[in-house]
Amino acid sequence: MPVIRDRLIKGDSRYAVDYITDAHAGYKYYANRWQFLGDSYTGGYDFFASRYLEPYYYESRDDYEKRLRQVALDNHVSSIVGIYNSFLFRKNIRREVGDLDADPNFQAFMKDADLDGRTFASFMRDVSAMAMVYGNAWVIVDKPSNQVFTRAEALQQGIRPYVSMFTPDNVLDWKYERQANGLYQLTYLKVKEEIIEDEQFVREYTPTEINVYKLYGKEKKGEYLETIPNTLGKIPAVCVYARRSNIRGIGISAVGDIADQQRMIYEEYSEIEQIIRLTNHPTLVKTSDTEASAGAGSIVQLPQNLDPGLKPYLLQPNGSSIESVLSSIQRKVDAIDRMACLGGIRSVESRRLSGIGLQTEFQMLNAKLADFAMNLEHAEEQIWDLWSALEGKAFDGDIIYPRSFSIQDKANDISVLKMAKDAKPTDPMIIEKIDKMILETITEKTYDEVKQGMMEEQQAQPLKLDMQHPPMESPEDMIKHMRSMVQEGYTDEQIMELHPEIKQFFGDTDGEETQGS
User: Fold this and answer.
1) pLDDT tens for residues 418-474?
2) Fewest Cβ atoms closer than 10 Å to its Cβ: which of 103, 214, 394, 400?
3) What is the enclosing helix (H) or strand (E) of 417?
4) Residue 95 buriedness (CB in 10 A; 0-12 / 13-18 / 19+)
5) What phi, psi does 111 have (nearest 5°)?
6) Residue 167 has pLDDT above 50, yes or no
7) What contacts 304, CB < 8 A, 6 or more positions away?
8) Largest Cα–Cα distance of the chain, in whole Å?
9) Which pTM does this prediction carry?
10) Helix, strand or coil, per DSSP, at residue 371
11) HEC states along 405-469?
């Protein structure tokens, strides 16, 4: 998309604002939905301020505001995203970065990736969370444009690539074009940056230049600020998906349906609060001439000529409907757990699930997490490609995210294995197999991995210096001393290292026995 800067310099300011804020059709369609998803994740004041509670018919503004203040949000979206991320980043991510490891800027970038104190691992964790909430998140890799003449000056001034994250509601426009080789490449991007007082900055990326605009004032006037050459020749941005949709640049939220259920629960909590108030504080119905006061020991004064059919009475709803609302809320929570495949993890009370049902749920959750991991892995490789290009290098490394997350009910598995062992099977192979399975369940490693680790640990065990090792002069000394060393945990290699005379000793013994025979 060409940039016609004359429209911003010579044109009418209102027309400039229209140009600056012009957005992608997908952005206009999903903007409100993205705001709802973001508020559902953050909760708190953001959710309250967006007025997601449905007003009653004929409800006054003051009553609606009061009802908003009296209901709280049970934030399932934040809880589920947190659980997903805890599984995704529980195991270390293998980052084999090749030649980048020798780059002086690499370690600085890993410790402070966004020039705001976040490590790169923490940054990717936040990117993962935002991608799950919105369906996708954008990561832009940039480098300060300070004029330096040598790499030493750049290192001295701390000029290095850094990353920034933008949620979809801050990415106004984008465009992908199909290349001659069939690859789709991002050729245009426009993002909203930070707001400073009443000024909003907008940055526009093309393959050749980066333009910066400013929106300011209550009437939102537009202004062109500067143009920075894009030395990469491509847009340094990566779209990180949670799940891909059929529109490039827009993903499918992992918690979209859960956010809708959460809003319904929010409405029903408001209903419960209203039922409790109406039940505990009934409404008095009286004529205008009747005088009544509120509180304990209150007196109602009736006119002497009042029609008996118009005597005051109380309207008090039946509070039994609370149980039906609570039952409805519980069904929605169960639906949320089922959609998130977290019924066996988020359960606050003991639930009897069949072994097959629990195993199936864990497998579905493992598959969901594996999909997230693959998308993050692909996105991070693209990020390192851009980072390397800004350093004048080519990325030749490999990024590997875990594919299996060992999601299982350890307590239940160990209990079943213990019952099998208590049955006292007679076949040694069965006993050995049960012991191996118990070890693998506890350590979350295969039996061979555990055995290899124990051997390496034993081989790496330092020699014990508190034991004296004088040269052995007789078979009796050899047998006694070697027995003590074995009991102390010395390996064969360590024994031979401490007593090299053993070989000669055995040779002499053979010779004596030969002569004696």
Assistant:
1) 888 788 888 888 888 888 887 777 776 666 776 777 676 666 655 555 566 677 777
2) 394
3) helix 410-422
4) middle
5) -85, -30
6) yes
7) none
8) 143
9) 0.74
10) helix
11) CCCCCHHHHHHHHHHHHHCCCCCHHHHHHHHHHHHHHHHCCCHHHHHHHHHHHHHCCCCCCCCCC
